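Q: Sequence in, structure out?
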Amino acid sequence: MLSVVIPVRNGVPLLKRTLEEVLEFLEDEIDGELIIVSDGCTDDPSSFMAPWLEKEERLRFERLDHHRGKGAAIRRGVLSARGDMIAYLDADLSAAPQMLIPLLRSVEDGADLACGSRHLPGSTIDVPQGLLRVILGSLFRRVVQLVTGLPVKDTQCGCKVFRSEKLIPIFDQLQEEGFAFDIEILLAARRNGLVIEELPVAWSDGPRSSLRPIRDGIRMLCALIRLVRNDRRSRRK
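A: Exactly. Output:
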């Protein structure tokens, strides 16, 4: 079974389309469940979700009592998931649910963690990010590659699939609660000798991203330094 985890931060306007498309995908393509996680939302997603939860057995709702970050929300959803394979997507479906199909095949063929990428041959960007985010994102990717050596060009793509038995122990130990959690997952997966594969996806940037390029960029750089330091310390043990 596949568990699809989607974190939401004040995203009620997105939820109707998100629920319809992901639940339709699960019905047409694969047996599974959808877990929506509220990251301390203040726009009352519980009321919106209530009628959906009454009629849809494949749908579940988790909540964080206060805003902690995308990483914390995904961690809550992953640790409550029932599937033997788990995926996560962004609430605006920048990567459509159908993008999970090649990632699922990759995991079925032996990968432990399959990552979507916006920066591989074959990737398509239907709606690009704003110029500032493109520039800062490119700089950040280069820094990540330089200091981590991870075999992934796009660590931050919100479209990943993994085997629960291999990644649940990693999620159980995660410390990062913000956007840098993807890097922490990948570093821990590499330390544990897991097979990581990156595949191209079609991407359409959403209009309601909670990422603030300057503020969150500085936080992510600080987190990156901390994660690399901890990774090197762990590998020396």
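Helices lie at 12-29, 45-55, 70-80, 100-108, 131-148, 164-171, 181-191, 213-236.
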